[in-house]
Structure formats: structure tokens, C-alpha cells
Amino acid sequence: MANRCQIIHVVVSVYLFYCVHGQVTTRGACPTVSVKTDFEIAKFLGLWYEIERFQSGVQSDLKCSTVTYWSNKDDVIGVTNNGTFTKNDKLTSTEGYAWIPDPKVPAKLKIKFKWWVPATNYWVLRTDYDTYSVVYSCNDYLFGFFKVESAWVLSRGRILNDDTLTDICNDLNDRGIDIGNFQPTDQTGCDDTLKYKPVD
Ligand SMILES: *[C@@H]1O[C@H](CO)[C@@H](O)[C@H](O)[C@H]1NC(C)=O
Questions:
Q1: Model confidence over 88-127: pLDDT tens digits?
Q2: What is the 3-state secondary structure (H, E, C) of 58-98?
Q3: How far is the CA of 108 from the centre of ligand 1 (A)?
Q4: CA 17 to CA 28: how far, in whole Å?
Q5: Which of 67, 85, 112, 155 would disulfide-bridge 119, Cβ 3.0–4.6 Å?
């Protein structure tokens, strides 16, 4: 049994870690949310543009952010996050991988980026595969004493139409997700050499 000081240390270090990564930490356990039914990972693969993301107060230092899901062997899905630092226009690219622990609920993925960071939930709440996607990550810590959340609204184009975005926000709000944590991602003045191409 860890003493109180050790527990506080874990809480503080986890909190600091997630803060700098633009996730949101709050008291209480994760909400129960439904995910996309009959999710088909094959149709979800390819390039997505980040339209909105959870951000804890500070403005994101990245613009033109994209995420590409690519198929891999052994049912592992490759995940490449790209972005451009606003301060110097330098590209940054991070690779991770995702998988589906329970094939009966294919929209509930797990994702892992760095070996020292435990895998986190990565759930596809909604998608029509060729226009928009909503990905939500919520993980309980200390048996639900606090949670760390992230969410992304993704689009197949650099712009998502306002009606779709409004509909997504209303829906997430109804599900008990705090949409006040969303901040828009700047997708202007980006390099467009790579474009999403629909799969045949
Ligand atoms: C992401 O960055 C990698 C490494 O620079 C590059 O190979 C890849 O084409 C980029 N993808 C997109 C969608 O920009």
C-alpha cells in the first residue's frame, strides 16, 4: 500500500505530464459513452485533418495538424500525427500504433505512442468515413478519482462545414462531454502536397 505522499506524487506528475500534452484533467470518472456501431477500420484508414481538439487553457503550438491511420500487419494500425510548429514553421511527426482489443466492439481502440507511456483508450464515437470523425479518449486514474480526456474532431478536408461541426458539438454535449475544452486547429497556410484520396 503506497503512502499518501507517493499517491500525491503520482497524481502531480501524471497531471503535469498530461497538461503539457494538451489533454484535460478533471475530477471524477469517465462518462459512459456509446461508440460507433459496426465500425469498419478499413474505411477509416487514410489521411484526416484535425479541426478541433481538447486543449487545457493554453493555445496549441501546432497548426496544420493531421493524423494518418495506415494498415499494418498483425491487426496493428499505424498512427502518424503530423503538425507544424506555429513559432518556426517546422514540421513534427509522431508515430504510434493502435489496435482493437475486443473485436466485438471494434470502435474501442487502444493507442500507444511512447514505450514509457501506458496505452490509452481511443474510441471512435462517430464517423461517416468520408467526411468527418469524432475520436474520444478518456482514462480513469486512481479508480476514477480523476480522469484525463482528449477529443478530436477530424475531417477528410482542411475545412469541415459548420452544420456538421455544430451537429457534432451538440451530440457530444448531450453525451456529457465538456465541449468547452475544444479549441479549433489552425488549418490555414498549410502545405497541401499530400491530400486525402478516397480508397476505391
Ligand atoms: C507526415 O510526416 C512524415 C515524415 O515527415 C511524412 O513522411 C508524411 O508524408 C507526412 N504525412 C502527412 C499527411 O503530411
A1: 989 999 999 999 999 999 999 999 988 888 899 999 999 9
A2: CCCCEEEEEEEEEECHHHCEEEEEEEEECCCCCEEEEEEEE
A3: 26
A4: 19
A5: 112
Residue 97: name the closest of 124, 118, 69 by CA: 69
Q: What is the C-alpha to C-alpha distance for residues 42 and 198, in angstroms, rounded to an integer? A: 12
Mutate to test the pocket of ligand 1, among 79, 81, 89, 93 (most ligand atoms within 8 A of CB): 93
Cell output for 40: 469498419
Amino acid at 126: R
**DSSP H or E segment with residue 140:** strand 132-141
Count the residues in the chain.
Answer: 200
Q: How far apart are CA 143 and CA 149, in angstroms?
A: 15
The mean pLDDT value of the chain amounts to 87
